[in-house]
Design a protein that fits this description.
alpha+beta; MutS, DNA mismatch repair protein, Chain A, domain 3; 2 domains; 55% helix; ATP-dependent DNA damage sensor activity; ATP binding; DNA_mismatch_repair_MutS_sf
Length: 229
C-alpha cells in the first residue's frame, strides 16, 4: 500500500523539479517573510541589487528613528511595521498620551479596540523615498515575473495533477484518522494481494463527504456509500 502513491508523485516531482529550482533561485523568501510581499531576489540583477541596497539603508534609518523616539519619550513598547506603503509606528492604546505629547508625531489610525498607528516627520520623508524605490523595484523585476508566469503556464498540467493528488490523499488520510479515532464501529474492507488480474475488483466510493464535516458540533457521522464493481 505504501508504494501505491509513489508513482504519480515521482512523475509530478520530475515534471516540477526545474520549476521549483527556478522559484528558489528567483524569489526572495527572506524579504517575503519580513514584509509579507513576494519579490524577485535582488542578487540576480545589478539594478535590483542597487535598489535593494537603498531600501535596506532606508530601513536602517527607520529603525534609528524608532529608537530615537523611544529614547525621547521614554517608552520602549513602540514597534515599527513595514509594508508596500512604507513604515509606520505602532503603540498600544493605553500609551496614547505618550504620542499626543510627543513632537512631530501624526496619528494616522485610531480605531477603538486596536493599537494606535502613527508617523513621525522624519519617517514620512523616509517613506517617500522608500515607496519610490519599491515602485522602481517592481518595474525592474517585471520581466522576471513575466518569465515565472510563463513557466507556470507551461507547468499547468503538472500543478493541476499535484493539487488533485494531494486533495485525494487528504480525504483518505482524514477519513482514516477520523474512523480510527471514532467511538463507533465502521466496516473496513480488506485489501488483499493477488496474482490473478481477473480477480481484481474496484471499490467505487460515491457521494464522498470530507471528514471535516463530520467533526462539526452536533453532526453525526454519515458513512460514505461504497459499491463493489
Amino acid at each position: 500500500m505504501l508504494s501505491l502513491p509513489q508513482a504519480p508523485l515521482k512523475e509530478i516531482k520530475k515534471s516540477l523539479d526545474d520549476f521549483v529550482n527556478v522559484i528558489h533561485e528567483l524569489i526572495d523568501t527572506k524579504t517575503s517573510t519580513a514584509f509579507k510581499d513576494y519579490r524577485v531576489a535582488a542578487d540576480i540583477d545589478k539594478h535590483l541589487s542597487e535598489i535593494n541596497e537603498t531600501m535596506e539603508e532606508l530601513e536602517k534609518k527607520a529603525k534609528e528613528e524608532l529608537q530615537s523616539l523611544k529614547d525621547d519619550i521614554k517608552e520602549s513598547s513602540i514597534n515599527i511595521k513595514c509594508s508596500r506603503h512604507g513604515f509606520v509606528m505602532v503603540i498600544k492604546r493605553s500609551k496614547l498620551n505618550c504620542i499626543k505629547k510627543a513632537p512631530n508625531c501624526t496619528i494616522i489610525k485610531n480605531v477603538k479596540g486596536s493599537d494606535i498607528t502613527f508617523l513621525t516627520t522624519s519617517l514620512k520623508i523616509i517613506n517617500e523615498e522608500y515607496v519610490k524605490c519599491l515602485n522602481d523595484y517592481w518595474t525592474h523585476e517585471s520581466p522576471y515575473v513575466k518569465g515565472i508566469l510563463e513557466m507556470v503556464y507551461k507547468k499547468t498540467a503538472a500543478i493541476k495533477a499535484m493539487f488533485e493528488f494531494v486533495s485525494q490523499l487528504d480525504v483518505f488520510l482524514s477519513l482514516a484518522v477520523f474512523v480510527s479515532s471514532s467511538r463507533n464501529k465502521f466496516v473496513r474492507p480488506q485489501i488483499l494481494d493477488h496474482t490473478n488480474i481477473e480477480e481484481e475488483r474496484v471499490l467505487q466510493m460515491t457521494q464522498l463527504r470530507h471528514p471535516v464535516v463530520e467533526t462539526s458540533p452536533n453532526v453525526e457521522f454519515i458513512p460514505n456509500d461504497i459499491k463493489p464493481l
